[in-house]
Specification:
Length: 270
């Protein structure tokens, strides 16, 4: 866990979603579409609180938690800066696999948009899913992010020197079989777990959730370089709006899920 905390203490996660806005735009479209009209929402693994601030602005009572103390402090500062503190029920440093501060069925909706990336052991992923189930009300909606094994395989094949140790076929075959990745280069992305896309729904089903939808947070936009995105942005506001709409529409296409860098599972607690 220290490795994860050290990485995110130095990484600008708020800025990442500003620099790469497609993931946030697509996710928020589907989150807002499926949220209850009001209520208490947990943003679990919230990082600096990008989604939490949006929820608070929409009038939800938000509880924020994250493993990294610095990010929790940044979120608290953001809430104060945006004059949203009254919409928050607390800012907590917690492991997603142990939400002991929260009572059973405390939340009308829950987000977990990051923790499963970093839980390489199946037992830890199971604990996080069980805790999400425990703190969400019966019938409550959950939003859970996954990183895809197919996309990481493609990244490694396209740019092997950037994703060591996946720069050799032996290591790449091992990654494909296990989904586990530990970057060789100091200070790069932490130890991570990448899901087989077909395993996501059974995993959530096993832990008490029924699927509403599974969408690609970056859709086919994950394949485009910044200059290619800029081409469509430079066509004018109307063309760029239609580009974003296309990314949102194609996010629901099951044939494209594996190429998206992140997936968003939307489900209900049975």
């Amino acid at each position: 866990m220290k490795e994860i905390i050290d990485y995110y203490s130095a990484f600008d996660e708020w800025g990442r979603l500003d620099r790469e806005p497609l993931e946030f735009i697509v996710n928020w479209h589907y989150i807002s579409k499926n949220l209850p009209p009001s209520g208490r929402v947990l943003d679990n693994g919230a990082g600096p609180g990008k989604y939490a601030m949006k929820l608070a602005k929409q009038g939800y009572q938000v509880t924020l938690s994250d493993l990294t103390p610095r990010l929790v402090s940044v979120a608290e500062e953001q809430a104060d800066h945006l004059q949203l503190t009254s919409q928050f029920d607390g800012f907590h440093v917690l492991n997603a696999a142990d939400l002991h501060l929260f009572s059973d069925e405390a939340f009308d909706a829950s987000l977990m948009l990051g923790p499963l990336y970093h839980l390489q052991e199946e037992a830890e992923r199971s604990k996080a899913a069980k805790e999400l189930y425990r703190v969400t009300k019966s019938g409550g909606v959950v939003f859970v992010a996954f990183q895809t094994r197919t996309r990481m395989l493609l990244n490694s094949l396209l740019n092997p020197a950037h994703w060591k140790p996946n720069h050799t076929m032996d290591n790449l075959e091992q990654f494909w079989a296990t989904g586990r990745f530990n970057h060789e280069d100091q200070g790069r992305f932490t130890g991570a777990y990448y899901f087989d896309t077909a395993a996501i729904e059974p995993f959530m089903e096993e832990h008490g959730f029924e699927k509403v939808s599974l969408i690609g947070s970056t859709s086919i936009g994950a394949l485009l370089h910044s200059e290619q995105v800029d081409y469509w942005r430079n066509q004018g506001d109307e063309a760029h709006r239609k580009y974003i709409e296309l990314m949102i529409t194609t996010a629901e296409d099951p044939a494209l899920l594996g190429i998206s860098s992140h997936l968003l599972y939307i489900g209900r607690r049975r």
